[in-house]
Amino acid sequence: MLAPLELSAQEQTAADNNARPAKSQTDKRRELAVGSAQTLPEVAVVGENAGSAAAPVKGYVVEQSASGSKTDTPLIEVPQSISAVNRDEFVARAAQSVSEAVAYTPGVVTGLFGPSTRDDYFILRGFEGTQYLDGTRLMSSSSSYAQLRVDPYGLERIEILRGPSSVLYGQNPPGGLVNMMSKRPTETPFHEIQFLGGSYDRVQGSLDLSGPVASRNDLFYRLVAMGRNADTQVDFVEDNRYYVAPSFTWKPSDATSFTFLSHYQKDETGNAMQFLPYEGTVLANPNGRIPSNRFLGEPGFDGYEREQFAVGYGLDHRFNHIFTARQNVRYANVSSDYRGIFPDYYYGFDADKGELIPGLSFVDAQMTKINRYGARYKDQTHTFTLDNQLQADFATGDVEHVGLVGLDFRHFTGDRKQGFTDFELPELVLDVYNPTYGNAFQEPVLDSSRSQQLDQVGLYAQDQLKWNRWIATIGIRHDWATTQTGNDGLIDPSRDDEAFTYRTGLGYQFDAGVVPYYSYSESFDPIADSDFFGKAFKPTTGQQHEFGVKYQPVGYNALFTAALFHLVQQNVLTADPEPSHVGYNIQTGEVRSQGAELEGKASLDVGLDVAASYTYTDTKVTKSTIASELGNNLTYTPEHQAGLWLDYTQRQGDFAGLGLGGGLRYAGGNYGDLANSLKTPSYVVVDAAVHYELGKLHSKLNGLRLGVNMANLLDHEYFTTCYGGNCFYGNRRTVLASLRYNW
Description:
The chain is mainly beta. The protein contains 5 helices and 40 strands. The strands form 7 sheets. The chain has a 22-stranded antiparallel barrel. The protein has a 5-stranded mixed β-sheet with strand order 3-9-10-7-8. A hairpin with a 2-residue loop joins strand 14 (239-253) and strand 15. It is globular, with a radius of gyration of 26 Å.
């Protein structure tokens, strides 16, 4: 049984009088707009989490979100699957990346290529998940390694919106998106300093300061900073980072708020993603298994350096009790230098079957030596995003409305210089079981270039309606996108795409806190490529039907969700079956994803925090020019996933302040190609934590917290994915000790 929340005397009196708990900003504006119209029944939790969607909350349960509607809306009223991973939750697990922070979330496959020091990667419902920061897109390109990566210490919350989301966010794959929300200035003074150290010689310090400026009640600041020096589980690969994020909020009146957000980050790392051969990892090799710390590059040459900064703001102004305007702006600049010696595994093309076939990973009969080649990529990207919104809270008779119209714009440019060594150089042959490094070789020369530019404009409108216990959402959008690419100074003609998408949803709100719902949503995603004849491809399109139920029990700080979904994507690229068109694609493919997702979160006053999830995903290729792919599973997507994390803190008695946490993560096997010839085994990982509030020992130690986190406690050796003859180890056991002081 879940223990009820302990209410204060004032809260208990309000509950006894059937008074409502605190309302979101949208609900307050609705009441002002409705006037004497019928007030709808509301289900919410009396606790610490009420407030706006951007406000920090305590515990694991987030009640308000802007990701699913771009308005301040309770999660149970959004007719789409959303998971919110609050800061308290991912800090409890000492997550060192966004990938680690969402590891217990349903419908998300992460850590695809092991302990990546370069980027975070997500698969949502079988498709690539795009990344957003504070509601605007972090643009990326398949032809650039200069992609902005967000450090979790600078985040307040991570929200995962599953399913097609183009109505609100424009071009996107159909699986969904990951929206990261930055820490913002607080009106209440907040100060934190933390030291962390542990496995792989990690030494890390961080600082978080916030509060009013000079005791003013209209100006607030926040300064977040972090620095670390660390190695990784792969030999010769470091993971060093320097991060600082200053911000301020100005509130000249109760109706206006302006928040300036910025950050600077510098990464000095290597490439922890080692492209290990299939034979010797998942498959047997007469020489045994290749160690997980094996480095296949060249010390002194390999490395990845990234420098990024972003500046932007969020402006919110309420004109009256009906109209509110918002504007979100960000400019981001990322430059990177990626150098590496990579395995050269041979893959051939079978023209009769129209598919790639694996050749030999090893170049010797003993299966110990591999070919390698050298590459260098210098990239720079610029991104400007703008989102203008006008919200209207009003009523027509007994129907309450939250109307939203908006215009958003994205501009992205990416430039690359690249070079490669010759292939099959004898000096780059490496024995993966007994490596010898340091042979002299001719380093790559940056002798070619690539460029890409993308502009997108979108117009959207949405109406959230309430009538009695019914909740309806209707949204429409039209997008215009222009893409232009170039190689070695030769610029291709621009490609123009446009698309119309819409979303509908209907739910019914019961007094007990149960909201069943149905929704239909669409996506579109342009493809910057063409066929053999130079004809540009159409954008991929996706449609999803979703049935679900959300349950927020009255009197408990908990939220439970369940969803069934059926998702189809069209215009998928498949290999051109014409033998003379080897290496080109045509656009006839179709894929389908369907399944179920369950999630439960609770933060209870007995000192127990819970996060539980289960995912079943059935993916299939339904149309393809490659006969052997029909009916097969999509890549990187296990059929079953599950996670359970518990964290208990003793509140009273001799052991008050002592906490223990533990978790289990399960992932089924997944395929590394659409032919389903490469599959990784399933795995189970155990995590654990112990922490203690030192203030329980003596009042002079108030605010000090000592913690030890152990990820992959049993040091289970497992593989996350295999692709193109390459396999990737998951994270080995990592132990981190932290000392945190808050005042």
